[in-house]
Amino acid sequence: MSRLQGKIALITGAGTGIGRACMQLFANEGAFVFGVSRTQSNLDETLSLVTSGGGKGSVFSADLSDPSKVEAVVENCISNNGKIDILLNAAGVGYNLRESSEGSMDPIDTTPIEKWKEVMASNLDSLFYVSRLVVPQMKRQKSGSIVNISSIFGMGGAPDAHTYTATKGAIINLSKSMAVAYVDDGIRCNVVAPGFVETQMVESVIPDLFSEENPKLISPMGRPATPQEVAYASLFFASDESSYCTGSVLAVDGGATGRA
């Protein structure tokens, strides 16, 4: 219950899914959690879960694809808490976007330019905007842990969702570059790469991927991960237990990438 005692954790994508699970788990481990997402009602639900479990935190609604809004987020977190020990970048879109944004999860030859820009803005630009403002604060502190949520589709190809896979691959390589660049500043940067996780992002495709006829098609474990399982992997990188890890990528995928 004290792996993050006294730490300040800025968590993006905190309204649902992996971000919400990280908010709850990090708070349970002693961190003050500062959650950011677009939808205030989702954030309020997350904060209620945090406080009802005895944790402490606050939330801030913002569109992280807008750099001016990101400035307000980081300034608010630092002015109210004095520091940022942990940055957990979980904001982004997934397969469910195809239901409201036609072409966003297509192969590249049928992806409209505006859909490429839309997914890039949510998944990659937002991470860049937040990280570029948090890193200077961590450099001043001479310490910090950045955990970026990518995907196993950032480690290999996929038949569709090419913009999504491009963003997730970029997150991995950017994280490795940050790890190398800022190691002397006491900053670590690591990646958690989930497979399919039982969240709103992929709920529409889960029945097809883990069918009764072939439940192990995607994962040898025959089921998607829970957000909590991804949160525990993120907690390891956020905590001092991973003090010798930087530039690492941890797949949380039920064995999917281990299968030839």
Kindly describe this structure.
- The protein is built from seven helices and seven strands.
- The protein is of the alpha/beta class.
- It has a single domain, classed as 3-Layer(aba) Sandwich (Rossmann fold).
- Strands 3-2-1-4-5-6-7 form a seven-stranded parallel beta sheet, sandwiched between helices.
- The chain is globular and about 50 Å long.
- The termini are far apart.
List the helices and strands and how they pair.
Blueprint: E1 8-12, H1 17-28, E2 32-37, H2 40-52, E3 56-61, H3 67-81, E4 86-89, H4 113-141, E5 144-149, H5 162-181, E6 187-194, H6 206-209, H7 227-238, E7 249-252
Parallel strand pairs: 1-2, 1-4, 2-3, 4-5, 5-6, 6-7
Helix pairs in contact: 1-2, 1-7, 3-4, 4-5
Classify the secondary structure makeup into a structural class.
alpha/beta
Sheet of most strands: 7 strands, parallel
Tell me the count of domains: 1
- Tell me the overall shape: globular
SSE pattern, N- to C-terminal: EHEHEHEHEHEHHE
Number of discrete helical segments: 7
Average predicted local confidence, pLDDT: 95
Keywords:
Rossmann fold, 15% strand, alpha/beta, 40% helix, 260 residues, 7 helices, seven-stranded parallel beta sheet
Quick gist of this model?
The chain has seven helices and seven strands, in the order E-H-E-H-E-H-E-H-E-H-E-H-H-E.
